[in-house]
């Protein structure tokens, strides 16, 4: 529970924590945010690390000069592409052979896998681009793509496109809007709104499926 509370606090107050990281670690901050995004997108059992909120907060700090805007964009882009590629490879190698009673099998349970699989089947390759903007789901979709034996040369095109759009929109949204007084004074509420809006397509899809059933 303490870990969950700490993670929730880190996500909801990402602006404060990121500022502290910049103050304490200076240039190493780029390596730290690289690892966070790489792990969130690349390690299928870690879908709850901050992604959208981290991009937004980094953009806001970049507008104040605390971070370099273009270095931040480049670091996030590389981390996102490499993370999804790793996730694809994991899915390609073990996606269909995970024992249900194992730790990984409990994290990647049938329900989560089926939701991601249904989304992937419905939208095809563009799912990889769409899923970039959907927390949790974006971690499972590359794994599903690998497990479904999607050709890597097709996957990497969608991977790069999705990563570029996600990073540019996330970072530049923070850069242009993150320090508006209302946003700055209600940063936690804005972050929560970003998370809810990001999850909305998945929620709508689940409701449609329920109504059809």
What is the strand tally?
0
H/E element sequence: HHHHHHHHHHHH
Helix content: over 70%
Tell me what portion of residues adopts beta-strand conformation: under 5%
- The chain-level mean pLDDT equals 80
The tally of helices reads 12
Shape: globular
**Distance between the first and last residues' Cα:** 35 Å
Task: Return residue spans where pLDDT drops below 50 for at least 5 consecutive residues.
Answer: none
Largest sheet, in brief, is: none
Q: Which structural class fits the helix and strand makeup?
A: mainly alpha
Radius of gyration: 17 Å
List keywords for this structure.
mainly alpha
Give your account of this protein's structure:
The protein is built from 12 helices and no strands. The termini are far apart.
Q: Secondary-structure map with pairings?
A:
Layout: H1 2-12, H2 14-25, H3 29-42, H4 52-63, H5 69-94, H6 103-107, H7 110-123, H8 127-131, H9 137-147, H10 152-177, H11 181-185, H12 187-212
Helix pairs in contact: 2-4, 3-5, 4-10, 5-9, 5-10, 7-9
